[in-house]
Structures are given as C-alpha cells and as structure tokens.
Amino acid sequence: xxxxxxxxxxxxxxxxxxxxxxxxxxxxxxxxxxxxxxxxxxxxxxxxxxxxxxxxxxxxxxxxxxxxxxxxxxxxxxxxxxxxxxxxxxxxxxxxxxxxxxxxxxxxxxxxxxxxxxxxxxxxxxxxxxxxxxxxxxxxxxxxxxxxxxxxxxxxxxxxxxxxxxxxxxxxxxxxxxxxxxxxxxxxxxxxxxxxxxxxxxxxxxxxxxxxxxxxxxxxxxxxxxxxxxxxxxxxxxxxxxxxxxxxxxxxxxxxxxxxxxxxxxxxxxxxxxxxxxxxxxxxxxxxxxxxxxxxxxxxxxxxxxxxxxxxxxxxxxxxxxxxxxx
Amino acid sequence: xxxxxxxxxxxxxxxxxxxxxxxxxxxxxxxxxxxxxxxxxxxxxxxxxxxxxxxxxxxxxxxxxxxxxxxxxxxxxxxxxxxxxxxxxxxxxxxxxxxxxxxxxxxxxxxxxxxxxxxxxxxxxxxxxxxxxxxxxxxxxxxxxxxxxxxxxxxxxxxxxxxxxxxxxxxxxxxxxxxxxxxxxxxxxxxxxxxxxxxxxxxxxxxxxxxxxxxxxxxxxxxxxxxxxxxxxxxxxxxxxxxxxxxxxxxxxxxxxxxxxxxxxxxxxxxxxxxxxxxxxxxxxxxxxxxxxxxxxxxxxxxxxxxxxxxxxxxxxxxxxxxxxxxxxxxxxxxxxxxxxxxxxxxxxxxxxxxxxxxxxxxxxxxxxxxxxxxxxxxxxxxxxxxxxxxxxxxxxxxxxxxxxxxxxxxxxxxxxxxxxxxxxxxxxxxxxxxxxxxxxx
Lengths: 327, 442
Known about the structure:
heterodimer; A: mainly alpha; MetI-like fold; two-stranded antiparallel sheet; flat; B: D-Maltodextrin-Binding Protein, domain 2; D-Maltodextrin-Binding Protein, domain 2; 2 domains; eight-stranded mixed β-sheet; 16 helices; 16% strand; disordered N terminus
C-alpha cells in the first residue's frame, strides 16, 4: 500500500518546515525553550483533564478495591473506618456466580450481536456508497438517526414495544396465532441485542462510509478497467481498504458490549428475567448503590476493565491492527 | 414524561455549575462550614429535603409561609428501584447530603451503618414520642438513639374487583385457603387472580410478617438473621404451589403490563396496602366504582394477624447544619393537622400520628371504591399489626437477593424453600462483609 506514503511529509519538507517556524539559528536555546513552553501550553489542558477525569478516578477505584470497611460499637452502628483488605474484594467478586454469569452473558451477546451489526453496517455503507445509490443523504441520515437517541430513551421506547398488553408487536403476533414473549429468560438477551443493534448500526455505518470516502477514485477506475463487476469491486477493493475502520468499529463494539448497562437497567422493572447481576456493569452498580459496598464494586469495575483490555488488544492482534495494515 | 428537553445551554450551564460547586465544596471542606449550629434569632436559613411522596410540596409550602426564617426546599428524588437510597448513600459518602430525607422503615438501619443519620435524642426528640403510633416510633429507635420521625405506614389488605367477583360468583376470600379456591375459580373464567412478582421483596416481607416471621433480631451486639424461618417457609410454599399450578401470573407488579391487566380485568385482585387506593385509582381510572377493600386473608379463620407494607419516616442527616430546626420541621410535617390533611390529599399512606385526622378523612378515593369507607378496613388492620417485627441492615440487598433467587427458582423450577435457604446464607455473608457481628437464627 504505497499509496499511503505521500501523506507523510518528506524528510526534506519537514526540515524546511522547522526552519521556517524558528526565528533563525542565532539563539537556538531560547527558541527551543519558547517552543517547549508553547507545546506545554497546548498539551497541558489535555493532560490536566486526562489526569483529573481518567487517571485520578482510575487510581481511586484501584485504591478502593483494596479497602474494606470495619465497623465497631454496639451492633456495628458506631464508627466505621476503612482498612487494607488485600485482594479480598477481588476474591469475593470472582467467587460470585452471578457476576461470572454476567460475563458469560455479555460474551455470548458480543459473539452474536457484534458480527451481525458490523456486517449490517458494512452492507449499508457499501450500498450507500455504490454508484447506483439514490437518496443517499436521506438514507444516511435515517440510518444514523437512532444513534442520536440516548440509550435510556431507546430502551424505554423499545420497552413499550416489548411489554405484553401494550406492545403492538405482541398484539399483531397474537392475532397471527404466534405467542411471543420478548422478555422471557430465553429471549430477553436478544431483545437487548436488538436495541443495541438498532442504536449503533448507523453509527458504525458512518465510520465505514468515512473510510470509503477516503479511498481514491482512481482505484475503482482501475478495477473497472480491469473488468471487475460492482460486486467484485466491493469484495476485492472496498472491503480490504476499509479494514482499519472495520477493526476500529469492532474494538468499540467489544468495549461497548462489555459495558452494557443502560438497556438492562431500564428494562429490569419490566422483566423479572433480568436479575441484579445481568451484566457485569449492572452487578457492580448493584453492589455499589444497592448493597452499598463500593469497595467490592470497585474491584468488579477493575476486573471488567482488565477483561475489556484483554479482549480489545487480543482482537487487535488477531485482526492485525489498523497500523499494521498500512505496511 | 413531563421533562422538558435538555438544551445544549442547560448542559453547559450544568457543567459550569458543577465546576463551581466543586470549587465551593473544596473550600467548605477545609473550613468548619459543615459543623451543626444553632440558628441565631432572626437569621434566615434554608433546609433541603429529599422526598418522592406525591404532593409533599403542599405541606412544605404551608410551612414556608408560616416560617419565613426556616425555608424548606423540596428536591424530588426518583423512587424507582430504590434509586433514591442509592442517591442518599452516595451523597453521604461524598459528604454533601441534604438536611432532611424521606426514608422508609426497612432501610433505616442501612443508613445507620453509614453514620448517615443524626441522633435526634440529644435534641429532645423523645418528648414527641406520644404523638405517634407506638410501634412506628420504635422503628427508628436503636438503643437510646432516635434516628427519624415516623410519617406513615401501610397496613396491608386485599383489593378486589367486586363486580367481576360477583359476576363470577366468587366470594371475597377471608383465609388463604379461600384465596386459593378463589384463584382457581377466577382462572376458570380466563383471568388470573394476581401476580406473584418475584422481585417484590417488600410485599413478600409483609406476607412473612403476617405469618409470624421474625427476619431480624438483636442479641447483645450481634444481629440475628432468620430469613428461612418456619412462617416464611409456609408463605413461600403457599405461593410456590400457586405458581406451580399456574393460578397466578409471575409478571412484575406496578409496571405497565400489570396496570393494563388491572384496567382490563385480566387481574381482578391485589394483595396490597393502604396506599394502594391512589395507585389503583390513578392507574386504572376506567374501573372506578368496581373495587372494594377487604382484610388481608388469614392463615387461620377468625384470626386477626396483619402486617405492614411500606411506610416511611422523615430523617435528619448527620451533616444537617441546623438540626434543631430540621427536627421541628419533621415533627410539624407529620403531626400538624393542617399538614396531615394535605399529605392525605396527596396520598401518602396511613398517618403515623395518633391525632389530627379522622379515619374517614383517609377515604380520598371513596367513589373509586363505590362509596365504601375503605379506610376503616386498613385502620382495623393497622391496629392488629404484629408490632414486634424489626428491620435490620442491608434490606435493599436482601430484597435484591430474594428477587434474584425467586427469579432463578421460577426459571429452573427449583423450590422456593431452597431460594430462602440461599438468601439466608447470602445475607449472613453480606452482613459479615459489612463488618458486622451476625448469627443465624434458629
């Protein structure tokens, strides 16, 4: 893929750029200092926010996950204080069947829903980017629109379509003699998958379209001159070229799936088949805000982050990674 | 949804306010701004009050008109799935709770574990004791400390669609045996008498309470936990057999599908509590005039065993800056006749105060119940509630465990008894995990 190289600045050009930016070779140290200061000025806001909103909470969660609460006084109603717990919270989380079952559930969810969604997004992107597509702007917006609906609202909307007695879908199915229950133990996971697919297919489609747009037109031209059909162009030119974007959407989807929370949380009051530890995130939430055990919840959050890291990087390695693809 | 759409500016404003609040909180932490103090004469203060009770703003407005110096600001909190308590616990942890909060009886002990509530005894709260129903006052008393002022209770009873029961020639059940027979008769007509909502721990606790269960007790400084005691097992067996014979539904209650079933008569009865009048009238308005309230079915014919579902208190948080004024407000809110009248209008439950109202005042939805003086039913039940029941710490978790265990049992057909045994085990572990001394009862 030598086509990617022109976008990199040539060494000579880079040298020239550096020379033009400086104020001359006479006082290099002062210039460099000024440059460093300017760079720091630009980076600092990012670093400050990154530290405050990412590193600090992460550190605090790690710290919390190693603590336990001890209580004294009659019936434990006296003072409480925190003490070092070692890995006890991790042990408790890992020995909790419900927490582990939640992991199994999101992995199953991801194994089915992510490929389905990415294939759908790819097909839609290819259709909208094909030469014979009509009404592109309308369809692109229409497919992307669900992404603009917050997850909680989407879940409430779909909740109305799932609950028997209210749902027109259930009513229609009933009149056809089909008895569907979207919220039973066996089906509710796929009802959730449907909400997530509805929400994120359009978003992933847009990412893929952006990459398709970056493909130079002469490649298609060359393929067509070589006698490739539209289908062959899609298969042998377009899909290999948008591979980095496919990998990216895959990673985002893996992380999003592991963090599944809003959808099961909203549907929970409607479906007794969703328990308090339906997904790992919901389990951690229940520990923290129902059980009032923030330390165990912190340990669970750390475990969840580790699994998300392992799966994301594992997937990147498996897929070759967007950077490796360039060479 | 009555919420107005969120505009970008609101969000930005919120972010700015958040940043500012953060800065302010940072300042106040270092100073002694949080220390409780006495209000100087003529000083104007504002107290914040977290509540979700419908119509609570009306008595508060009245208080504010009468007490220009002590203004109370109600902040509504969501009561879905215990979200309000999650918020309160988080606020206690973060060090910025409100001055006052609405807290239900069962979850009070959980807040004591957090050091979250102010002991009102040093402020002389004991002198108000006689204004309240004895056992409800006791719910907030731990040792010598008093942690809240009771507001309302929820004596349990049975609501039935009298018109349907008459048409189907089903008598209103007086015992649980008759209830089962009624369930069979209703099922023959194509309806379901009820739903056994597996996640409704509150109601299950009430039913166990009626059967004579004692889930929590204390011995010296140890909590005794006994979720799978004999009476609770009896209740579990009973509902398990109804579920197994498909005489009751198992959908969650108090959500859209259940309301729909109430509206259509697909579910013509409900083992509920006194505050259920507003719930039924509000969510099934088309069935006006057809409902009646009856006493909770008994395990033995002729017995008078009743229980309580719901009921709450007004508590003062440990960080309240003007505890004395907060206590004065809490007592006024729950005892002043003019306040009680407004609370009754809002549908808050059965008053904890002994005086200041007549039972007939509580028949707010009399027309909905075809003119029945239904509050007498609940008043009689309230007088026979077994008052030795105590709540312990971690009830939210217990309810969650119960819900999960019953859900599992429904899915895999295992027995409710084994669910109870599992919950008993888990609850002991949970409380040990919180650093408490616990022992298993029985």
